[in-house]
Amino acid sequence: MKRVALFGSTGSIGTQALEVIEALGASFSVAALAAGRCTEAFRLQVAKWRPSVIAIGLPDEAKAFEQAEPSWKGRVLSGPEGLAAAVESADIVLNGITGYAGLPVSLAAVGRGKRLALANKESLVAAGPLVMGLAAKHGAEVIPVDSEHSAIFQCMRSGAHGEVERLILTASGGPFRTWDATRVEAASIADALNHPTWKMGPKISIDSATLMNKALEVIEARWIFDVPSSKIEVVVHPQSIVHSMVLFKDQSMIAQLGLPSMKVPIQYALTHPDRAPSDVATWSVDRFHSLNFEVPRHDLFPALTLGMHAAREGGLLGTVLNAANEVAVAEFLAGRIRFLDITRRVASTMNRWRGGTEVSLESVRDADEWARREAIAP
């Protein structure tokens, strides 16, 4: 039986991961559940799965849980101690936390030689060399859960690393794919949250609307697959059936296809190298009758250009991009800036960066803090 520690258990990835684990049956168990807050949804998860370790981000809420549940026999922890205990309790650490806040989980998992099922792309955007370096040192597996990187991970089994000519990430194009610039400039929060294909949390929904999500994925792909940015391409694919592709030197193109469902990459990260049956809707000709591809509109969605630049330059520029974007998205969701101001804030912050390039835990933290302060400024 494989034991799973699930971080971000009440989010979209976390709740679907628990459904996948339940469907897989006795071959997997939930060793630890971790969430930022002790919500009613989290309490229900704990009551159902009875993990040996519970980690709650806010110490006061961890204490409140213990007081409210005197019969609970498991460990209720918070802070670094809770993180360490949750990671140690498991064979597989599924990191479903959104944003830079997920970096400590990724570092803890690979530093202990665990399998990291990674849905937190920001870990690699902010500190790719650090995470992958630790993984290599401690023999940890990093298996992507993002649908695009899971697709590439699966496609890469068709050839050797040295045979890869190009990684091709697909993008749905988001809710504004067919809008003109004037209309996008006036886009509301509700417009930006209305993704045509995927149902996600607000942060990633906004990132998909700006195409910043794809920019982050370019940087993630650069580190997780150890390829230069010149070998990474983004294409718009509105149907979201082809999740990504790999072009090999002999011009063979291997693609991973399927109806949109995060359960497939979640499950594969748990069961790899094996596959198991799933309850995801199966292939039929009426669902796959048309596949279209388009060139991204870099003029209207400059986030892609920013992501390619950060992937090419390396160092701490990815850290700066990610931090500035998190701040700008929060500002937009609070109604303080307009939609297109998000990427303008990110670009402005990146342009002002004059820091070093050495990637260490301390330098990543410093760059992240600097970028968050700078991104608040108009």
Describe the structure.
With 378 residues, this protein is α/β, with parallel strands linked by helices. It has 2 domains: 2-144, NAD(P)-binding Rossmann-like Domain (Rossmann fold); 149-314, no CATH class. The protein contains 16 helices and 11 strands. The chain has helices spanning 12-24, 40-49, 59-68, 79-88, 103-111, 122-138, 147-155, 181-185, 189-193, 202-210, 212-224, 263-271, 303-313, 317-333, 341-352, 361-376; strands at residues 2-7, 28-35, 53-56, 75-77, 92-95, 115-118, 141-144, 164-171, 232-236, 242-248, 253-257. Strand 5, helix 5 (103-111) and strand 6 (115-118) form a beta-alpha-beta unit. Helix 4 (79-88) crosses helix 5 (103-111), helix 6 packs parallel to helix 11 and helix 11 (212-224) runs parallel beside helix 13 (303-313). The chain is globular, with a radius of gyration of 20 Å. The model has no long low-confidence stretch (mean pLDDT 94).
Task: Give a quick precis of the structure.
The chain is of the alpha/beta class. It has helices at 12-24, 40-49, 59-68, 79-88, 103-111, 122-138, 147-155, 181-185, 189-193, 202-210, 212-224, 263-271, 303-313, 317-333, 341-352, 361-376, and strands at residues 2-7, 28-35, 53-56, 75-77, 92-95, 115-118, 141-144, 164-171, 232-236, 242-248, 253-257. Strands 4-3-2-1-5-6-7 form a 7-stranded parallel beta sheet, with helices on both faces.
